[in-house]
Model the fold of this input.
Amino acid sequence: MELLCPAGSLKSLKAAIDNGADAVYIGFSDQTNARNFAGLNFSDQQLHAAVEYVHSHHKRLHIAINTFAHPEQSKRWQCAVDKAVQLGADVLIVADLSVLAYCAKHYPDMELHASVQVSATNAGAIAFLKSQFNVTRVVLPRVLSIHQIRQLARSCDVELEVFAYGSLCIMAEGRCYLSSYLTGESPNTAGVCSGAKFVDYQTQQHQQQTVLESRLNGVLIDRFAEDENAGYPTLCKGRFSVDNDLYHVLEEPTSLNSMELLPELYSLGIKAIKIEGRQRSPSYVRDISKTWRMAIDNCISQPNEFVVNDTMQQCLTSYSEGSQTTLGAYHKKWK
Amino acid sequence: MKYALGPILYYWPKAKVEAFYEQAADSSADIIYLGETVCAKRRELKLKDWLHIAHQLKKAGKEVCLSTMALLENHSDLFMLRRYCDNLGFTVEANDLAAVEHLSKHQVPFVTGAAINCYNAETVAFLHNLGMKRWVMPVELSKDWLKAIRSSELVKSLPLEIEVFSYGHLPLAYSSRCFTARSLNRSKDDCQLCCIDYPTGRQVTTQDQQQIFVVNGVQTQSGQKYNLINEQSTMQGLVDVVRLSPESEQTLIMIDRFRANEDGHYPMTLDNTKECNGYWHQIAGMQSK
Done:
């Protein structure tokens, strides 16, 4: 079971490798990357340094080309594939069917993983990806319960990778247009969800109280009292009303943490544990990588004795959205 | 232009569904999509009931297409999918790659639904090669995006129909969580099939009373109704089939309004607080132009 850690910068990449990652995933500074944020990602020079660093430590580098090619611009996505191969990436993580086809045709020996954005949630879709593109690993969307993952692990002959920790996407990835509905930009079309340039915070008077309003492209996502922590206005974590009942209609601000399921994931033969967060800081990558390394090592050496100790729990909670974590869809009751 | 009635996205009682399709048989729809696409727990109608309706509509001269589930999570979902796909005689709308896998393996032509990620000419050509005869564009894409695909060398000579979701609340996202059950403080396992109490889903509003979403079980829809009735003159030569998504019996009348305004001669005034057309104009979906 490998630990796959995120890196949005060379500093984060080094932090991941130095703290126990078996592999690191990165992306380019362009539209082909679902974390195409300002100030993030690598210059060409840094890309070469990244490959050098990872390989000199005998670890593996995955490059994510995980958005959907725009019409008349497919060359850009194909060039990203060419560039990743030339750089010496060990694995390509790809979302678009036509880009997967391009990889399979031009680089049949390259290890190809189906991105979570492909939204492959079942054995039929996985069989399709294997037969059409010789995909050897599928990253599972965060919609499956542990029972459903068990079913898949038993019936599929490709490697499975699961998200273990980080921001919680509550919709089937690759099939969510909430962000473009509000802002015009979605993960599929622009590599961004609830984009920062649409965010606005304003202090207002509401019912004789001072409140902080968070808006996304002018749409009110939440109102916070003075003693509340104001979260980022990710649209699926807003407080809205259904029939005058005000609550987090879709999901609370919370992060995914599946550490307590490690022994089970290990016994199912899950090939990789993925940490979300290429947009996070090097200290996040350092601490989270270190904690998960320790957990995986403990789990492999004594799976029956595995416990999430206080130090691990504190670390995971401290980096979580709203200081809350959830098992998400892995636990049936979440649904 | 052909007009299609999409599958009913909500959970209606069996008698209401049957009555709806009796009226639909007399409507001016050319194509009718049938079946449950949102949640496997919605079983008011069994496959044999859908097939019965399908045969009746076919007799009434409609082209019938069986729509399949968008989010398939386990073996029983897959088993059900295969049963739908193996009903030769009706075209199937694939809404997941598992359906594409099954249909292409059996060399059965299919419709690619809007829930499959197809964003460029290369992917259209790839799916066509596997047997796609009609492509329903993802709902978030625009006229300009479609133009670029349609005019590409790869696509322009393909014998392929292009369909655009043009009326109704837009299906925007799928989750394994049931938001309707959550709105009643129930888990999905204990949902008590509550969606049947909400024939047009449940409205979600912001704290300043803006309609933002509609929750429909595991599906999240747009808060506003998408309406491209006044955009049809820009669809000429670009779109072959206009889809209307059933909201109520009124949708059947709306097909006539769309038909009447095919060339733009009988436009309709849209209610900007309840209707939108942003995606077609490549702006935020909720906006109107």
User: Anything to note?
Assistant: The first helix of chain A runs from residue 10 to 18. Chain A has a mean pLDDT of 94.
